[in-house]
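Q: What residues go here?
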């Protein structure tokens, strides 16, 4: 098990990693991410907006022909973050944040 710090800044970092991982491995819109993580919509929006703080590039892919921001988020670049490490430690990250990912909904 990986040791993860408990500070406010560390939790914010872990939250961004978790959300980026969810977007990358289980693409969807905000409603999908809410169901997946149990996080409030505003928390997700703020974290997605701030992913570039970690050099993670995230974009919204509009569904062709759809109206009003229908589509999915996608991770275009992980920057300096090692995705293999995140894959191996996503359980510890979600446990640290007290989040039970709903991967089977």
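A:
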């Amino acid at each position: 098990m990986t040791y993860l710090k408990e500070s406010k800044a560390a939790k914010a970092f872990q939250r961004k990693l978790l959300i980026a991982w969810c977007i990358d491995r289980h693409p969807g819109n905000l409603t999908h991410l809410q169901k997946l993580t149990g996080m409030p919509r505003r928390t997700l929006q703020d974290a997605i907006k701030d992913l570039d703080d970690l050099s993670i590039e995230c974009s919204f892919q509009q569904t062709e022909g759809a109206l009003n921001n229908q589509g999915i988020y996608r991770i275009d670049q992980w920057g300096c973050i090692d995705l293999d490490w995140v894959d191996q430690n996503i359980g510890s990250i979600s446990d640290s944040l007290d989040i039970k990912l709903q991967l089977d909904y």
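A: Context that may help when evaluating the design: The chain has a mean pLDDT of 92. Residues 8-25 form the longest helix (18 residues).
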